[in-house]
Fold these 2 entries.
Entry 1:
Amino acid sequence: MENNYSPNSSFSVFPPAIKNLLIINGLAFFALTTPQLGDFLFVFGALWPLGSPRFEVWQLVTYMFLHGGIGHLVFNLFALWIFGQAIENFWGTKRFVIYYFLCGIGAAIIHMFIGGGGAPTVGASGAVFGILIAFGMMFPERYIMLLIPPIPIKAKYFVMIFGAIELFSGVMRPGSGIAHFAHLGGMIVGFILIKYWGIKGERTNQ
């Protein structure tokens, strides 16, 4: 059965899930920078490789709330807010939350089996890339203004380019320290979920 969604009559710039995710990620980052508490959160909350004695199943969720630096945090939270607010307003909070966490968990599993290596992983990037592909599928004809170069590009092409870059980087630069296959994993899981749920995107006259 297909679901046809239409935007809510009242658009919120900070819908509930987005607002709470921003707050929790911010608090977790500051906690991670404090002595002792930060070490505890990293050891028990980061996603350790599957064969590591430190791996625990809850890390498939907790790793999404920890970040390796202020740049990592700001990039993920900015992307989450920019693209996620439209998706949460379009789908509703409940479906958005389910989608976000499933993308993050799926990204972690794919990363562990394909590109995990021996280092622990942190960051919301897998879930955020799931949000990115959702934006491209729900609003394919909307324009996104790039910063470098400063040109507009349709969302569907923006997502395709990002996916291609992540695939190329994952294959050609496996030791870069960036979880490219987690990013791809979030996009793959997101694509499957949207198709499985039968969600249709924004209606346009084009």
Note: The first strand starts at residue 3 and ends at 4.
Entry 2:
Amino acid sequence: MTKQASIKSCAMVAAGFAATILIGSAPAVADVNFAGKKIQIVVPAKEGGGLDRYARLLAPFFQKYLPGKPTVLVFNKPGGGLIKGSNWFQRKAKPDGLIALGITTSVHTSFVFGGKKVKYDELGWRSVIVSPLGTVFYARTDTGVKGKDPAADVKVLQAGKWITSGKTPNSAELRMFLALEMLGIKNIKPIFGISTAKRRNAIIRGEMHLGIDSAGAFIGKVTRYVKKGVIVPWMTLGFIDSAGNIVRDPLFPDLPSFPEVYKAVHGKAPSGNDWKMLKHLFNMGVMASKGIMLPKETPDDVLAAWISAAKMAVKDPELLKRAKRDMGGYPHSFGADADKIKKDAVDVTPESKAWMRNWIDNVLRKKA
């Protein structure tokens, strides 16, 4: 299959994968009843982004499947690299199942690297659902990247000077900046304060050169420019399979994963402090890309009701029709399984955290 054919068929592949759901044994739901209640799903980001779409996609199905069919509303509380809304949830949400939080990659990265402004304890939250979503690296075709030989593409990128962007030095784009650094692509000028959508549009217009997108956003927003010859995808971060191995992203089987590209460039598998940190960022950005959380002290029966509703939601035929872009067709995890994925993402050792903060301050910020 050619790369163009693979990209063209992504939406169909996604629909097939959407039927594959990781469902463990359902916990017992006691006399939980939300009849007549209003439930808020707090989104610590602006309207229209990936997390907002994810929460609004799920909201009507939580309304359908939670006991008592409560009214479920999405409440946007953006600010501070998603710290403001996450802090609000930590401070205000009671463990009664009436307030949930939507999480995404920047919630994870801010928790680990956000410093004193972060007042929330993500490891203490109880996971309802975690949804992975792949990461696609792409470039303008006029950079010389062809997307056929990863070692040749990296050599081209090592030789040039390129502009890209991120929301903040601590935001979701960290996985892009560190991956490029590990591949020896060092002549990068990052512009901070730019949203993902604005970066994407700047690349399309020719004002920037390199970027990443989630698999869903890439399929929905970028593939048309691949067909026009403006953009070329050249790598994904990959995906963790059931055996714990990083393999090719199932929606982009013709694109090499980061470990493959690294080995093609350096002749060996990645290792060291930078690789330890990138694996955390990989889990933050891919395996725990989106999710719904409840407060720490939420009773088991209330959590079980939410998990049961989430499992029914992601099997609902109507949601499956809508989910191609924002869930990508990847398998979801629930409850304890989702907690483990979240822990793999954000339970960073003090040594790794110190290494990454040093890299952010002394490498990344100096490039800006």
Note: Residues 1-27 have pLDDT under 50 and may be disordered.
